[in-house]
Amino acid sequence: MDKAYPSRKQKRCARFSALFLAGALFIAVSPQAFPAITLSHAEALRIGKRIWQNECNGTVSGLTSWNTGEDFASLGIGHFIWYPEGKGGPFEESFPKLIKFISDRGVNVPSWLQSARGCPWESLSDFQHAQNSPQMKVLRDFLVRTVDLQAQFLVNRLENALPKMLEETAPFNRAHVQEQFERMSRSAKGCYALVDYVNFKGEGVLHTERYRGEGWGLLQVLDDMHGVSGGSAIEEFSRSARAILTRRIKNSPPERNESRWLPGWINRVNSYVRD
Fold first, then answer.
1. Is residue 68 a contact partner of residue 80, using CB atoms and an 8 Å limit?
2. Which carries the bigger pLDDT value, residue 13 or residue 83?
3. Residue 107: how many CA atoms within 13 Å on its side-chain side?
4. pLDDT digits (tens, 9 = 90+) for 189-206
5. Is residue 127 part of a domain?
6. Given 148, 179, 207, which residue is the final one in a domain?
7. Domain count of the chain?
8. Residue 126 lies in a domain
9. For 235-259, what is each residue's pLDDT tens digit?
10. 116, 148, 180: which is the final residue of a domain?
11. Which residue segment(s) compose the domain that 126 sits in?
12. Is the C-alpha dihedral spanning 224, 227, 229, 230 positive or negative?
């Protein structure tokens, strides 16, 4: 397993004050100090529709998917995972959390979804056979009319990702990573890029998601940024994402042939700077 951050040789006298200040910064950066990301209804809806396009080609049918070779349904604009009752797997089951999030905001949730103890379809075959069933139609309608709340759910998950990323970052670099995150989160356009990328390539904190010790998640993209407040954060984020994804391809095992995905990835992160 890789280290959370690389060790460095340090001269005690020369580095003592810097390390002390870094430690003080880390103590100051508590969960309560993290700024909340707030979006208007229109802004959340716009972000939701763009992520819907990225994950589902903007189609209603794409909101209810079950990919070949997987043992779970992928639902909603973020393809949130839902396992059949009694089953589980290595990936986080996020769809039940989405349902609770929407219900807690006073939105009417179909009764069968509220009481379900798991995905009602046991397999890909069951799921395909139910495409025109009343349950599936109700599910699609529910997902279509809650796109904005699904987007807000992803934003809230992004907020919760920041403490994890800072924990994985060297103490002397935590202020830098948080500054880049905050630069991006000050606009709806920047929020979209953050939400989409973390949904697309993860937080970058899992050591299993690395090639040759180097990750490709949101943490790595933020860490590679160098701008300060007032600069063009979104353009820099897009540039950094291109570099990080290109590095992943170079580090990837040749037998995986991941280079075939790079043009689509680059097009996706280039979209962050477009209207």
1. no
2. 83
3. 17
4. 898 899 999 888 888 998
5. yes
6. 148
7. 2
8. yes
9. 999 999 999 999 999 999 998 888 9
10. 148
11. 41-148
12. negative
Q: CA 217 → CA 57, 59, 209, 213, 244, distances in Å?
A: 23, 27, 8, 13, 8
Q: Do 77 and 136 fall within a single domain?
A: yes
- pLDDT for 168 equals 95
Radius of gyration of the chain (CA): 20
Over residues 209-219, the pLDDT tens digits come to: 889 999 999 99
CA distance 221 to 233: 12
188 and 266 assigned to the same domain:
yes
Same domain, 72 and 101: yes
Spatial CA neighbour of 154 closest among 217, 103, 102: 102
Rounded to an integer, the average pLDDT of 83-91 is 84
Longest dimension (CA), the chain: 71
Enter the tokens of residue 80: 């949130």
Q: Please check whether residue 203 lies inside any domain of the structure.
A: yes
pLDDT (average), residues 175-200: 90
